[in-house]
Amino acid sequence: MAIITLPYRYLERLTGTDRQTIIDRVPMIGADIERIEEDHVDVEFFPDRPDLYSPEGVSRAMRGFLGIEEGLPVYPVRPSGITFSVDPGLADIRPFLGSAVIRNVSFDEEAIESLMSLQEALHWAVGRGRGKVAIGVHDLDAVTPPFRYIASPRDRSFVPLDFEQEMTLEEILTDHPKGRDYARLVEDFHRFPLIVDADDRVLSFPPIINGELTRVTTATKNILLDCTGTDRRAVMTAVNIICTALAEAGATIETVTVEGEEMPTLAPAERIVSVEECASLLGLPLSAQEMARLLCRMRFGAEPDGDSRVRILVPCYRADILHDWDVFEDVAIAYGFENFDAALPATATVGEEHPITAIAGAVRSVMIGLGYLEMMPFTLTNERVLYANMQREHLPGTLQVLHPISEEQTLVRTDLLGLLMEMLQANKHRELPQRLFAVGDVVEACATFQKFAAVSIHPAADFSEVYAAADVLCRELSLPYTVVESADPAFLDGRRGDIIVDGRKVGVFGEIHPAVLKAFDLEHPVAAFALDLTAVPGYPAPPGTP
How far apart are CA 404 and CA 418, in angstroms? Predict the structure, then answer.
């Protein structure tokens, strides 16, 4: 989740109330206070509310929640006359572009830091690490419209942000810190996305780095915003959030014509919701008038539509409103969680530990005793992590995501080992040794069961270390096993073994293959093992098993 820094002085000016009131009440809109400092407070917001990832967004929400300014915020938009063309060659690379002109901005160092923080938070929450959306903010007065979004040859050069000399696009991917971090997003394409002005000067190399030419400073008064990506809805969400945040700070918004389309509109979306359904879900005796009043506190436009319905206008920055129940959640927030009566459930049951939970608990006890740290990898992953990097064949029973929102989450995990290797890659700057394990659900052929995996990385990690750990775990789980030579391509030949129980392969251990280490950009040996927990005595049989 995103942790947002809220400077007191700026926040008080935007909100119109004192810092203590804000600190006392901001948790009630769905946030956790991380730390309170002398000049600012750090607040953690959920990923579903990216509109709150800036002091401007928080102040807008708090003004409504505190009753200072209720109802739908209105953001006038006028045409700028600026146009953007999009190269058809980008269709299979990074096809979508959103843009806006933001004028009369007033930047000090604090405001610039706030904008950059919002940009990076949106890269994480909406952009999925820039893969889905990348955001560029440029000093408009340093360049000349109209602008072009093109598919450029890889040898094109410009001066990237924070550098003084020109670099080719390929050099940026290898020699610039941001290039190395995000090269994987574009390196396989024959041409690269590039944004240039009327004089063919480079503004940005999305999703990697902006040009030094358009650096935003305290002298910047007018901004050109570009958002590029692979998902149009996510791109326009980022545009709306940034435009409305800067409008809250006093800027004016102007449209840009992208291939004949004027954007952004910043117009709300209309919705009609049921009073009875909301009241039933929340357990509150609501009228249409009361429900509309509560929604106005949450910055919706709302008015009764008869006695049983409420007509609402959803602000353009509220990308989280996907279902009527999302609206009802805001009714509950506005009502006040502290105002709900505490009550015991109508029914009571006596529970006991599930056998699968007991087995997982035993695994955790053993591995923690061996000095391993438990990780909880995401359930969704991708072919690169599970198969390509691990040098393994794609399993025919893999459950694919029909409409993935990111290239990083395209399937449900069938194994845990690749995810732990990815975890080592993310923490390779940390001290060694690192010993990690995970236990949890996997899905094969639409069947859910549990697996275990562990990795150990340090200069002396070897076959003997992992064999000993695997032996301890199997003995403590009362799992009689034998070991045979393995052919698993993820491991080094001659330093790998399969765990066999009742004639069935249920696990593997050994030293990870150097090619796999290279794929995950790891520089030290890794010893690893994995186990199918369905082989453990006491694991419940699938329903319908005789």
Answer: 20
Contact status, residue 78 vs residue 254, Cβ threshold 8 Å: yes
Q: Tokens for 95, please give them.
A: 């096809």
Q: What is the tens place of the pLDDT at every residue in 119-131?
A: 999 998 888 889 9
pLDDT of 515 reads 95
Which tokens in the block code for residue 381? 């992953």
Question: At which residue do the structure tokens 């094109």 appear?
Answer: 156
Rounded CA-CA distance 496/500 in Å is: 13
Tokens representing 370 are 């061996």
Alpha-carbon span 520 to 417, nearest angstrom: 12
For residues 70 and 295, give the distance between their C-alpha atoms in angstroms, rounded to a whole number: 9
- Interior/surface letters 328-364, b for 16+ CB within 10 angstroms, e for the rest: bbbbbbbbeeeeeeeeeeeeeeeeeeeebeebbebbe
As a residue count, the chain comes to 546
User: Which tokens in the block code for residue 519?
Assistant: 């794929």
Rounded distance between C-alpha atoms, residue 212 and residue 447, angstroms = 52
Q: What is the mean pLDDT of residues 535-541?
A: 88
Q: Helix 109-125 and helix 232-248: axis angle, to 10°? A: 160
Q: What is the mean pLDDT of residues 26-37?
A: 90
Q: Would you tell me the crossing angle of helices 355-369 and 463-476 to the nearest 10 degrees? A: 140
Residue 247 has pLDDT above 90, yes or no: yes
DSSP 331: H
Residue 363 has phi, psi (to 5 degrees) of -60, -45
Which one-letter DSSP state was computed for residue 214? G
* Secondary structure (3-state) at 498: strand
Structure tokens at 63: 């003004």
Contact 304, 272 (CB under 8 A): no
- The amino acid occupying position 140 is L
Starting at the edge strand that comes first in sequence, how are the strands of the sheet with 2-7 ordered?
2-7, 40-45, 31-36
Burial degree of 273 (CB within 10 A; 0-12, 13-18, 19+): buried
* pLDDT on residue 106: 86
